[in-house]
């Protein structure tokens, strides 16, 4: 069941908060106070996010054209505002996975991936997000300076998995993946580039073997080359 309110004021009230929690905290507090304040004061939040629910938010996210956190004078991007709205709505997990796995709207996928990283447990974060490391769609990103750069979905997801801050948002530290493997909570991950990397390693080994063999003839126990030429092996 989605938890919806016309604005975030009630959920942001820290006095006796009794609503749903994520990681034992108020979901809206997963974003830092200055960022929350800038979001709730922004034009986009007030005009575009006021009456959104899980269904209409999907439509709004499908119209996004870039990702990012804050930029310029700490202005929040629509991407960050919609993430905050998701934290207010707390849609069912199945809805988030539908957002994530649809293939038509890449910014909706990116938004769902960010929400997964913030709210899911560690083992689920790895299981749900790692398939996107094979997604090479381009993403437009608004930089902190207000400019633009090109990112890729796999790069964005990799940042979510290894960095402690993405899009002006501090992320909970994930346990080392190998530790989760040793505990039997995750299967060993096979990289989609595994075979390609093995081929590269094999080619490099062959090149080294050829290089080390150039100009050197095979020698028998008497110091004679196999082709019959004497090789001086004395000091």
Overview of this structure, please?
Helix content is 46%, strand content 8%. The protein is mainly alpha-helical and 235 residues long. The strands form 3 sheets. It has a two-stranded antiparallel ribbon. A two-stranded antiparallel ribbon has the order 3-4. A hairpin with a 3-residue loop joins β1 (70-71) and β2 (75-76). α4 packs antiparallel against α5 (78-89). The longest helix is centred in the last third of the chain and has 20 residues, at 194-213.
Topology:
Layout: H1 9-12, H2 33-41, H3 43-48, H4 54-62, E1 70-71, E2 75-76, H5 78-89, H6 93-101, H7 106-119, H8 122-129, E3 138-142, E4 148-152, H9 153-162, E5 165-166, E6 169-170, H10 177-182, H11 194-213
Antiparallel strand pairs: 1-2, 3-4, 5-6
Helix pairs in contact: 4-5, 5-7, 6-7, 7-9
Task: Specify the overall morphology.
Answer: globular
Our count of helices gives 11
Question: What is the typical, i.e. mean, pLDDT?
Answer: 83
Secondary-structure element string: HHHHEEHHHHEEHEEHH
Multimeric state = single chain
State Rg. 27 Å
List key phrases describing it.
globular, mainly alpha, two-stranded antiparallel sheet, 11 helices, 8% strand, disordered N terminus, 235 residues
